[in-house]
Amino acid sequence: MTHDNRWTTVCSSLPAGRYFVQGDEACAEGALAAGCDYYAGYPITPASEIMERINDRFAQLEGRVFVQMEDEIASIASVIGASWAGARSMTATSGPGLSLMLENIGYAIITETPCVIVDVQRAGPSTGQATRPAQGDVMQVRWGASGDYEIIALAPWSVQETYEHTIRAFNLADRFRVPVFVLMDEAIGHLRENLVVQAEIPFYPRRKDRGQPAFGGAEVPSMPSFGEQARLLVTGSTHDEWGYRRTSSSEAQASLVARLSNKISNHRSEIAQVFHYECHDAPLDALLVAYGFSARSALGAVRMARAAGIKVGLLRLASLWPFPEEKVAASLQLARRIIVAEMNRGQVLREVRRLAPRATGYQRTDGEVISAGELSRAIQEDLLR
Fold first, then answer.
1. Bridge partners of 284?
2. What is the dihedral of CA 338, 342, 345, 349, to 10 degrees?
3. Where are the strands (E) in 105-251, listed by range?
4. Which residues contact 120 (CB under 8 A, 6 or more apart)?
5. Residue 314, SS3?
6. SS3 state at 88
7. Does the first or last residue of the chain, that is N or C, have fewer Cβ atoms within 10 Å of its Cβ?
């Protein structure tokens, strides 16, 4: 959390206490707690349980609107429109649906529309294996839209963190006026474990200063809604600070793209979250880098290696974009061997290798999760090279 004085708290939508729920259900409850009052989506495995839970819970609460759209293109378009009407809006999907949403996500980026997009990753490409886990959308959420921009993507590793990250995603979306991804995977989405709900939830209210330009004048401009007597022009073309199209102006284009990028990259330390495990006795024999469900297996592998007398630690990336370069770079100094574990062909490994060319990867792309045992064996084999 930042020192920004706009932060406040609101009461939880669930009574404080302990619940035993699925990751997808925790995501839905996090959205409700964060004040999500508009959801548009289309059913897709393994994210459908989010929509089902939202539908059931919205019916119990006043002022919440759920719409099942005809496809994912319509879903994200509806979410963007609802945000400009003042809603805290959200959708959830998986890889094939995300591919359909990308053009409109680009529109949300250039129009600085806060919204939350949950991607419960499954094995691909294309339809792939609808019910099997993967982490293959990491680069898609970063680079899927056209042009230059920065994006925010969070990567929970538990049911608890899924709930908390979904709340955080809504707050970051309004804090920076940007679409925010919650980048889950099937194994987390369908995992069941305890969820502890607090009585109060952190909340960042949207700025709605009247008479101020909605697309400039500040690093993150205020965003009044339609119907609030504000001067609003919203276009996906290059525009000035008042929203007027400036498609022939090199100055307007350069200024807009720079601000869209800088409002995120300048606050990387506020957004980025990493956690260390068993790194207290550096220098280490090896450091694992992992995120999402793979980080759970990595922590198990660390404990197995420690039991065998090998000094291994874990760097867990709880957020992926903007990539936490400074925090990762400092952590890579803790060990002589770096191993990145992920359920893809090495997408985060590429980022780590920019900082540490010596890094190696351990990947699975067969629709199965990485196990702690196989990763522990891979560590020992790597150390023998």
1. 335
2. -30
3. 115-123, 129-133, 152-154, 179-185, 192-197, 200-203
4. 24, 46, 47, 50, 92, 93, 94, 184, 185, 186, 188, 189
5. strand
6. coil
7. C
CA dihedral sign of residues 245, 249, 254, 255:
negative
The encoded tokens of residue 66 equal 């759920």
Q: How many CB atoms sit inside 10 A of residue 99's CB? A: 17
pTM: 0.96
Percentages (nearest 5) of helix, strand, coil residues in the chain: 40, 25, 40
Q: Are 383 and 285 in contact (CB under 8 A)?
A: yes
Q: What is the dihedral of CA 306, 307, 310, 312, to 10 degrees?
A: -20
Please check whether residue 221 is in contact with residue 213, taking contact to mean a CB–CB distance below 8 angstroms. yes
pLDDT at 52: 97
User: Is the Cβ–Cβ distance between 223 and 187 less than 8 Å?
Assistant: no
Query: CB-based contacts of 3: which residues, under 8 Å, 6+ apart?
Result: none
Looking at residue 4, what is its pLDDT? 67
101 touches 95 (CB < 8 A): no
Q: Are 338 and 332 in contact (CB under 8 A)?
A: yes
Q: Give the integer Cα–Cα distance in Å for 239 and 233.
A: 9
Where do the DSSP E strands lie in the chain? 8-11, 17-22, 38-41, 65-68, 89-93, 115-123, 129-133, 152-154, 179-185, 192-197, 200-203, 274-277, 286-290, 312-317, 319-321, 338-342, 360-363
**Rounded to an integer, what distance in angstroms lies between the CA atom of residue 4 and that of residue 294?**
34
What whole-number distance in Å separates Cα of residue 320 and Cα of residue 49? 24
Angstrom distance (rounded) from CA 33 to CA 362: 37
pLDDT at 385: 75
Q: Give the residue carrying structure tokens 């889950």.
A: 184
Q: SS3 for 267?
A: coil
Cβ-based neighbours of 333, under 8 Å, separated by 6 or more: none
